[in-house]
Design goal:
566 residues, 10 helices, alpha+beta, 22 strands
């Protein structure tokens, strides 16, 4: 009992942050817990007496053999539980999130509501006039929105395409599609084989052409051309260039010997691309040699046993060799490019076949889910912008004035329709500049009066002032909220607390905000799977007052995200 108590105390010391932080090691905690729990499982009087007697009557080897398996079994059973206990985690949940913007104000008598478009455009319709009674949500004015409607249709179709791609990824390819892809792989392999054979033949031909150009066409101009000290037979004015050419001929001889040996290995077609690179390098070496030799031949002087006829023959030989080598270089480069292209096509075909015949990876599904989430968010944003092209009655009331005509081009935030609500009271609130973009006319409101803290009333945002209001150096925008129903208990001047519902999403994934980390402008969570921590990049959406944040991509329902390490 005393030993168990002592171990429990040690465990608390290792876990606490404020006591010996250097000793706060998961492995130490883990070991202490294992010993503590094992002893707790065995600590009763009869068992303890039996253990002591056993230890006294047996050797240490026997004790080791008897008790080690017990500790191993306990370790394996309790390991997942104890390891998970080192973390504070939360599951990825699916449900409904409601995002609200809070404010406060005082109850006051209703005033005239001025309504305007948030976007500029041409008036398409104004179906109301002064004196008309209107219901909440009734259309009061409409701009020409054909362009944004077309954009919405296009984005909606793009979203459907992303959904279809994800479904296709999950379902997998059909047998017919797999057969077609297999045929593509076979065709790509045949094309690569043909390209290899063509390149091999071109390399052999290139060696033959180089050998002929050097040893047949130009060696007649040298004394001892294949020896260490070849000498030109004709006289030239540029002695330095003559020495350079003679050195190049020595180097060419070594290259031709090595290349000839390399040609013998072409039958295996191993590293054929590298052999093609070598062939191009060798042909370029021959081409440079012929260019220099051409300069010497064209400047050759008759004498020393060399006639003009000899010089003319040399010129012809060099010109012919140069043409042949240039053509050979072109052919080599072309066949080399063909082989590289064939290999790339084969890799692409093999990857396509692999993707069609294997199960989709979770990371691939997450990529598609992220694309769907982004496409949906973009569509929702444009749909919200479409509302800027129309004016709806925020509450039930009476039209007092209209200030525009059909076909007229109007600017944003200019009053188009004025009305007075039928509501008995309203509340004017200040919305911070950080939240005003989320608030729109017609949104639902939850109202609490300090005079009746246990009750809630429903209301609606009826107006948002486009001009800012400076309150002690902070920027706010005034908004008006009206009660949806009359209530005799409500009095002017009462203090009211307001919660505007700016967004609500059903069946979305969410995690606590404390699990989210931000780095370099990107957001991440750490997912715990068994004993493995995996960092995931995520895309977030709305958040609620309880500290939950929507996760649009990067995690799946039921996974555990790490909030803290103990």
């Amino acid at each position: 009992m005393y030993l168990s108590t002592t171990l429990a105390g040690l465990q608390s010391i290792f876990i606490r942050r404020d006591v010996y932080p250097g000793l706060r090691c998961p492995h130490i905690i883990f070991t202490v817990k294992i010993i503590h729990i094992t002893l707790c499982l065995h600590m009763n009087t009869n068992l303890l007496t039996g253990v002591v007697a056993y230890l006294k009557s047996h050797t240490w080897t026997t004790v080791f053999i008897a008790f080690v398996p017990l500790f191993v079994i306990v370790f394996l059973i309790l390991q997942p539980i104890l390891y998970a206990d080192l973390y504070t985690t939360a599951p990825v949940e699916k449900g409904t999130l409601t995002q609200e913007v809070s404010a406060n104000g005082a109850v006051e008598s209703p005033s005239n509501i001025s309504l305007a478009f948030k976007a500029a455009g041409k008036i398409k319709s104004i179906p109301v006039s002064a004196g008309d009674s209107v219901e909440q949500g009734q259309l009061l004015a409409q701009l020409d929105a054909r362009q944004i409607e077309s954009q919405i249709a296009s984005m909606d179709a793009a979203l459907d395409i992303q959904k279809a791609k994800l479904e296709q990824l999950i379902v997998g390819a059909t047998q017919e599609d797999i057969a077609i892809t297999q045929s593509s792989v076979i065709a790509a392999e045949a094309a690569r084989k043909n390209a290899e054979q063509n390149l091999a033949a071109t390399i052999r031909d290139a060696f033959s052409k180089a050998d002929d150009a050097v040893r047949t066409k130009t060696d007649v101009m040298f004394l001892n051309p294949r020896k260490s000290y070849p000498q030109l037979l004709f006289l030239v004015p540029d002695s330095q260039l003559q020495l350079d050419v003679e050195d190049e001929r020595v180097a060419l001889e070594s290259m031709l010997i090595a290349w000839q040996t390399d040609i013998a290995a072409l039958s295996t077609l191993d590293s054929i691309v590298m052999k093609g690179d070598t062939a191009i390098q060798n042909i370029n070496m021959v081409a440079n040699y012929l260019d220099d030799l051409s300069l010497l031949v064209n400047a050759a002087v008759v004498g020393g046993g060399v006639t003009q006829t000899n010089i003319d023959t040399y010129k012809t030989n060099v010109a012919t060799a140069r043409t042949t080598i240039n053509t050979t270089l072109t052919n080599l480069t072309a066949h080399q490019g063909t082989l590289r292209s064939a290999e790339s096509s084969l890799v692409t075909a093999q990857n396509q076949l692999r993707s069609k015949t294997s199960s989709p990876r979770p990371v691939d599904i997450q990529v598609y889910e992220g694309q769907i989430a982004q496409a949906r968010a973009s569509l929702e944003q444009v749909i919200a912008e479409r509302n800027d092209y129309a004016i709806y009655a925020p509450v039930k009331g009476t039209i007092t004035n209209t200030t525009a005509e059909l076909g007229e081009n109007v600017a944003a935030n200019n009053t188009i329709v004025s009305m007075i609500p039928d509501a008995t009271f309203q509340i004017t609130i200040n919305v911070s500049e950080n939240n005003v973009a989320l608030v729109r006319v017609g949104q639902s409101v939850r109202i609490s009066l300090e005079a009746f803290p246990e009750l809630n009333w429903k209301g609606t945002v009826s107006h948002i002032d486009p001009a800012e209001t400076n309150v002690s150096g902070a920027i706010y925008y005034q908004a008006t909220v009206v009660f949806d129903q009359k209530d005799e208990r409500i009095r002017s001047g009462m203090t009211a607390n307001i919660w505007i519902q700016v967004a609500q999403k059903e069946r979305v994934l969410f995690v606590p905000a404390g699990a989210i980390q931000t780095r370099d402008g990107l957001k991440y969570v750490s997912v715990l799977s068994g004993r493995t921590e995996e960092e995931r990049e995520i895309t977030t959406g709305i958040y609620d007052a309880r500290g939950n944040v929507e996760i649009m991509s990067g995690v799946r329902e039921g996974e555990l995200v790490i909030l803290a390490k103990k």
